[in-house]
Amino acid sequence: MNDVPTAGAKDLGGPPWERALVRRIRERNLAWKSEKTYRAWCRRFIAACGNKSVDELDHRDVREWLSDLAVKERVSVATQAQALNAVVFFFREVLKRDPGDFSDFERARRGRKVPTVLTQDECRRLFENMSGTYRLMAQLMYGAGLRLTELLRLRVKDVDLDRLQLSVQFSKGGKSRLTMIPPKLVPALRAHRDRLRELYKQDRAAGLPGVEIPEALERKWPKAGEKFIWFWFWPSRLLMRDHRKGISRRHHVLDVTFQKAIREAVERAGFTKRISPHTLRHSFATHLLENGTGIRDVQDLLGHADISTTQIYLHTARHTGVGIRSPFDAL
Questions:
Q1: Do 219 and 244 meet the contact criterion of CB atoms below 8 Å apart?
Q2: Global pTM?
Q3: Tens digit of pLDDT for each residue in 114-160?
Q4: What pLDDT, on the 0 to 100 scale, is given for residue 1?
Q5: Which of 171, 235, 252, 297 is deepest in the core (most CB within 10 A)?
Q6: Which domains does the chain carry?
Q7: Which residues are catalytic?
């Protein structure tokens, strides 16, 4: 789902190649975060090629650039892969030609940092230094193991309080999955949903446009965005301008707004760790493994395509689900 903010919508790029890139990205309805990432990498690629014109770029330029990222800049595997995706998109979708065979480029060294996690007491301390909707958002992010974008884009229909299930749509890679809702959060979530209904009624009475929904669905059911089931579960207080329609409508809470709330809570709590909203997702996975949940189940709940991504949490768990203990404890 494209979520370009108003300021971003006005930035159509500088040189012709970048304007063509922006146009293709928005035609493909990629997320604003993806657009910023692709544009930044393509700028770096073009700059690295010096005075060479865009039409002359080929697989040799791609190979040399990707190798330099690994050898000279020592980027991580994930960063190099991100750069690769951006330049391949540029060749295929903008230049309309195959970049050629550059598969022999120098690969970045594999190595994954162990994520920062909170203990359960630290999670409790963080929540105690938050209030209102932001506290509930943080609790659900931890309790369900959500990514930040997954949390922010929840709709009313995605939150099944009777079955204790969250339906995560348009997740990383465009995938969907189900995850849990902690029973302890149900009363607060139900009360929040009741407040949402009042806000929804106010928007309808004011004649506001419905919330943004996927374009394919909007073409099929133009009025679906006016239905309560599609209302944002975490709506913003203020209306925002829709870059696609040029109208003011209700959007979800912005990522920077929630990040600021977490940052301020971290400062109030006096933590000495570097904590972001994603730390709550790391902590969710770690605590599940510590409590005996199998790694395959954790993989499904997190929505990881590859179990190797989930295995990093075996390093952060004090006790794993397979019950491994140090032989020192038997002395």
A1: no
A2: 0.71
A3: 788 999 999 999 999 999 999 999 999 999 999 999 999 999 999 99
A4: 44
A5: 252
A6: 7-94 (1.10.150.130), 120-312 (1.10.443.10)
A7: 147, 172, 278, 281, 304, 313
